[in-house]
């Protein structure tokens, strides 16, 4: 059995069906009507120990509800969840010892206490032996720069510092599985990079990671697998590299050319590509669909016009694929069974 095993998982919520305004609320008091929302609909998912899985989908797709079911915070309407042999909603304590959770929009730090105190409380809650606790703090300091945050009261932390401290809280007990829901939300580029680097180190240490994010840059270097959920149903479950290889159509070639060549001259030779001039003379970016053109053909088209001094080809981005899936322009072939 996989470390995380989910079978036929369904969660429905009953939502009050109120009309608009105060009138609607009053009417609801007399004539109670409800709508059932199926947030998670017959989901099957197996995550092996050591895997890093991106769990993505548009707003309201059912991601957070899935994570809440996996952590045992809520009970399923039907179906099964087993994490490391534990049914999370039946034994939340046993489950809490083996999992780490971060909800990026909320904090598990005690607001009026220094970060160190929050961590000490967690040490006591999880009953972590002193030596193991110290070793873990040292490791978290190495990857998150934790030491400078320890004496600071939570409410005085910046958002980026708070996220680093929250990640430490989620991982202080060395959990086997971590669920990270939007770990880089609201962070500036430099802190985001630091958190992403940390996610890579988690993966390298063999921690099983389920990462939920709208910022697909988070998953590029961390996750080897992508699961896409839409309207509560899994619509794709497969390798990230494979998806990019098969479906990421857009490629960009950045060029530095010698001599006075114009954008229009290049565009004339490459009618199916988009050509954009850069800020400096001779700089151009050519973007094309790799199913109609190749980087070689782009260069061959340009060489008669000018000498090519520098070439850089952008890696295909998962954003390109997922954006088209969300927009309904693309159906991925290898849907989950
Ligand atoms: N406690 C609840 N009561 C009623 N409806 C709920 C509840 N929790 C979630 N839902 C509904 O279930 C659906 C899935 O919500 P969920 O929060 O899991 O989506 P999500 O993919 O995490 O979205 P986002 O990316 O916006 O965070 C939505 O339609 C939401 O309104």
UniProtKB/TrEMBL annotation:
Gene Ontology MF term list: ATP binding; ATP hydrolysis activity
Q: Which UniProt keywords apply?
A: Antibiotic resistance, ATP-binding, Nucleotide-binding, Transport
Topology in membrane: Peripheral membrane protein
Cellular compartments per GO CC: plasma membrane
Signal sequence bounds: none
The listed locations are:
Cell membrane
Q: Which GO terms describe its biological process?
A: response to antibiotic
* InterPro entries (UniProt xref): AAA+_ATPase (IPR003593), ABC_transporter-like_ATP-bd (IPR003439), ABC_transporter-like_CS (IPR017871), ABC_transporter_ATP-binding (IPR050763), P-loop_NTPase (IPR027417)
* Predominant cellular place of this UniProt entry's protein: membrane
Output this protein's name: ABC-2 type transport system ATP-binding protein
Organism listed in the record: Allocatelliglobosispora scoriae
